């Protein structure tokens, strides 16, 4: 089975060569684009499985690339950028990026992020029907049709907001969801008070879901950004 086809969007030649050489050494296929317009063209022409995207492109901003690609594709997009402020991460993730890797980065971390994305792709492909019926992740099971969740065979007693939050995370397993995205999906708006409420609901959900909330197995916090449902082997 072929490794995914990766579209590398990076105008800095040394970094682009580092990424493509690393991908080739680990059996990945790749194509490249040096600017945003070419990236959009390559994405539509070759239908890659994953995009690695720099934000500081010479023609259009990478966030604009995300917006335009998201208008027709759900392909996973991993941002690789020197922009390290939380506001930059939030802007990219809210636009539709799946992950954010800050420069400078290690090739080991890049490969790890790709593996996580591949697992999410596999989960979506293998369990496409399950997203409408049953979601299973480790000892967690969510029956969407029945409207209930189980952990290690025992039903979890969740409030309506906790259950909606859990379902949203499960349906986006492996993807960082920003506070703004979550509150808009749960409450239909995103106010400062909603983010405070989200933290409360997340804390109570974790108490019911995690054996040790201080060392979470299922829900990972990205401080100042949002949350991610991790794929449990």
TrEMBL record:
Question: One short Pfam family name for this protein?
Answer: Trans_reg_C
Q: Which SMART domains match?
A: REC (SM00448), Trans_reg_C (SM00862)
Keywords carried by this UniProt record? Cytoplasm, DNA-binding, Phosphoprotein, Transcription, Transcription regulation, Two-component regulatory system
Main location per the UniProt record? cytoplasm
Any idea which residues bear 4-aspartylphosphate here?
Answer: 54
Q: Where in the cell is it found?
A: Cytoplasm
Q: What are the recorded Gene Ontology BP terms?
A: positive regulation of DNA-templated transcription
OmpR/PhoB-type domain residues? 132-231
Q: Which SUPFAM superfamilies match?
A: C-terminal effector domain of the bipartite response regulators, CheY-like
The residues covered by the Response regulatory domain are 5-118
PROSITE patterns xrefs? OMPR_PHOB, RESPONSE_REGULATORY
Residues in the DNA-binding region are 132-231
Q: Which CDD domains match?
A: REC_OmpR_KdpE-like, trans_reg_C
A single Gene Ontology MF term assigned here is: identical protein binding
GO CC list: cytosol; protein-DNA complex
For this protein, the record's InterPro entries field holds:
CheY-like_superfamily, OmpR/PhoB-type_DNA-bd, Sig_transdc_resp-reg_C-effctor, Sig_transdc_resp-reg_receiver, WalR-like, WH-like_DNA-bd_sf
**PANTHER family on file:** KDP OPERON TRANSCRIPTIONAL REGULATORY PROTEIN KDPE, REGULATOR OF RPOS
Q: What does this protein do?
A: May play the central regulatory role in sporulation. It may be an element of the effector pathway responsible for the activation of sporulation genes in response to nutritional stress. Spo0A may act in concert with spo0H (a sigma factor) to control the expression of some genes that are critical to the sporulation process.
> Which protein are we looking at?
Stage 0 sporulation protein A homolog
Q: What species does this protein belong to? A: Agathobaculum faecis
């Amino acid at each position: 089975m072929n490794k995914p086809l990766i579209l590398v969007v990076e105008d800095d030649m040394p970094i682009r060569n580092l990424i493509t050489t690393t991908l080739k050494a680990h059996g990945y296929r790749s194509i490249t684009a040096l600017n945003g317009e070419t990236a959009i063209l390559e994405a539509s022409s070759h239908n890659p499985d994953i995009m690695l995207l720099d934000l500081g492109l010479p023609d259009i901003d990478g966030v604009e690339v995300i917006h335009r690609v998201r208008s027709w594709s759900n392909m996973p997009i991993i941002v690789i950028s020197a922009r390290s402020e939380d506001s930059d991460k939030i802007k990219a993730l809210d636009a539709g990026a799946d992950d954010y890797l800050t420069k400078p980065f290690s090739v080991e971390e890049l490969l790890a992020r790709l593996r996580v994305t591949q697992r999410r792709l596999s989960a979506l492909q293998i369990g496409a029907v399950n997203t409408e019926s049953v979601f299973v992740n480790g000892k967690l099971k969510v029956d969407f049709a029945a409207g209930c969740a189980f952990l290690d065979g025992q039903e979890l007693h969740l409030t309506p907001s906790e259950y909606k939050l859990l379902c949203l995370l499960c349906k986006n397993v492996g993807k960082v969801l920003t506070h703004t995205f979550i509150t808009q999906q749960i409450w239909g708006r995103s106010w400062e008070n909603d983010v405070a409420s989200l933290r409360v609901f997340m804390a109570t959900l974790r108490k019911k879901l995690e054996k040790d909330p201080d060392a979470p197995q299922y829900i990972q916090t990205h401080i100042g950004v949002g949350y991610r449902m991790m794929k449990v082997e």
